[in-house]
Design a protein that fits this description.
heterodimer, A: about 230 residues, alpha+beta, 4-stranded mixed sheet, 3-stranded antiparallel sheet, 9 strands, globular, disordered N terminus, B: about 130 residues, 5-stranded antiparallel sheet
Chain lengths: ~230, ~130
C-alpha cells in the first residue's frame, strides 16, 4: 500500500486496487498504519460526514457524502459503482461493523445499520445487552467521567461487556458496541452523556457512538448532555 | 494501566523532571481493561485514561476551585489557533503537551490569567462542538 494518497475531506485515501478495498488513515497521523476497509470506516470515518459504503460487483468502496464529488472525480470506478447502486435503488447507506467482506451484503441496503452485528455470537450479543434497563434512558461517556457509575445512579442502561473486551478483535468490539446502540435506539431511549457536548473529543469512541446515533439512528441533541430520537 | 505507563515512559519523560509532576492517584477496572492515572504539579493536574483501548488525556488547574477537566484540543485552540484532529492521545499530542506545559502552568498559576484561560477553553469547546455536531 502506498504511503501517501489523495487527501479526502477527513482522511487520506490510498490507491484503490482492483478488487481490493480502500485503505484510509487520518490526516496528520503520519505514524499511523494504513487501516483497511470497513472496520476503519466504522470507527474513524463515520464522524466525517454522511458516509456511504457500498459493494458493487465485488468491489468495496467508501466515500464521504460531504465531499463525494471530488472523490468521484478521483475514482471513476467509485463513481460508476455508486451510479449503479443509485440506479438500482439499493444504495442506501450500508453501515455495519465487522468484517468487511461479510458486513456488506451485496445489493441489500442495511437501513438499520450495523448489519455485521448479525455476525455477533449469541454470547457477545447477550453481554452487549447485559446492562440494558427498562428506564428509557442510556448513559454514554468516557471512563474518566464515570459513565458507568452515573448510569447506575440513574438506573439507566450502559455499555459494559467486562474483561471479555480484551479478547475481541476490533471488528467484534465495534459490532458489540453498535449492537448495544442499535438496541437502545430501537427502544427509543433518551441518551444522556456523562460529559458535556463541548468535552467530546473527535476521533474517540464516545464521539463515534454519538455520531452513529445522530447519523444512522436519527438522534438529535436537545441540550448539552442529551439526545433523543428525532420525531418521525 | 500498562498502556498508560508505557506511553508516559516513552513520550512524556518531560513530566517527571525534578519539581514537575508526581503520581497522586490511579485506578484500574476490569471492564475494557480501563485504567487511569492522575499526575499533579503545583498548578496543573493531568488525568490520563486508558478508555476502551484509547488513551485520553485531560487537565485542570490544581487550585482555583474549578473541577472541570479540559482536553488538549481546546488548549491547542487557545495557544495555537487550531484544535488539531483526533483527541486520542498519541506521540503528536505528547509533543504538544511538552511544548505547552510551561505556558499552561504559568496561566494556571496566576488567578486572573487562570480565569481568562478557562473562559478561552470553554470558548474553544463551544466552537468545537459546533463544528462537530452543528
Amino acid at each position: 500500500m502506498k504511503s501517501a494518497g489523495p487527501k479526502g475531506p477527513g482522511f487520506y485515501f490510498s490507491s484503490i486496487p482492483d478488487g481490493g478495498s480502500v485503505k484510509l488513515k487520518p490526516p496528520g497521523a503520519d505514524n499511523c498504519d494504513w487501516r483497511c476497509g470497513l472496520g476503519f470506516f466504522e470507527t474513524q470515518v463515520l464522524g466525517c460526514g454522511s458516509v456511504v459504503g457500498c459493494e458493487v460487483q465485488g468491489l468495496l468502496f467508501f466515500t464521504p457524502g460531504g465531499d463525494g464529488g471530488k472523490l468521484m472525480e478521483m475514482f471513476p470506478k467509485l463513481r460508476r459503482a455508486l451510479e449503479l447502486v443509485k440506479e438500482s435503488k439499493v444504495g442506501k447507506a450500508i453501515v455495519g461493523a465487522g468484517k468487511a467482506g461479510r458486513a456488506l451484503k451485496k445489493g441489500k441496503a442495511a437501513e438499520q445499520g450495523a448489519k455485521a452485528v448479525e455476525d455477533l455470537s449469541s454470547e457477545l450479543r447477550a453481554l452487549s445487552e447485559a446492562n440494558i434497563t427498562n428506564s428509557g434512558e442510556t448513559v454514554l461517556g468516557t471512563y474518566s467521567s464515570g459513565y458507568v457509575d452515573y448510569a447506575r445512579s440513574r438506573g439507566a442502561s450502559y455499555f459494559d461487556i467486562g474483561p471479555v473486551w480484551d479478547t475481541l478483535t476490533e471488528p467484534e468490539k465495534t459490532a458489540a458496541n453498535l449492537h448495544f446502540l442499535d438496541v437502545i435506539a430501537s427502544r427509543g431511549d433518551r441518551v444522556v452523556l456523562s460529559i458535556t457536548k463541548g468535552a467530546i473529543d473527535p476521533g474517540t469512541t464516545t464521539f463515534r457512538e454519538i455520531k452513529y446515533l445522530e447519523k444512522i439512528k436519527g438522534y438529535v441533541w436537545i441540550d448539552e448532555r442529551s439526545l433523543v430520537p428525532r420525531r418521525r | 494501566m500498562t498502556e498508560i505507563l508505557l506511553f508516559l515512559a516513552k513520550y512524556c519523560a518531560f513530566l517527571f523532571r525534578p519539581g514537575r509532576f508526581r503520581f497522586v492517584d490511579s485506578r484500574t477496572d476490569e471492564s475494557f481493561n480501563n485504567a487511569l492515572v492522575i499526575l499533579e504539579s503545583t498548578s496543573v493536574r493531568l488525568r490520563i485514561a486508558h478508555d476502551r483501548g484509547e488513551l485520553l488525556l485531560d487537565f485542570q488547574p490544581t487550585v482555583g476551585g474549578s473541577d472541570e477537566w479540559f482536553s488538549l484540543g481546546p488548549l491547542r485552540g487557545v495557544l495555537l489557533g487550531d484544535r488539531g484532529g483526533s483527541g486520542v492521545l498519541d506521540e503528536g499530542w505528547a509533543q504538544f503537551l511538552g511544548d505547552s506545559l510551561d505556558e499552561l502552568a504559568q496561566r494556571f498559576a496566576d488567578p486572573a490569567v487562570r480565569s481568562t484561560t478557562i473562559e478561552e477553553l470553554h470558548h474553544q469547546e463551544k466552537l468545537r462542538a459546533k463544528e462537530l455536531f452543528g
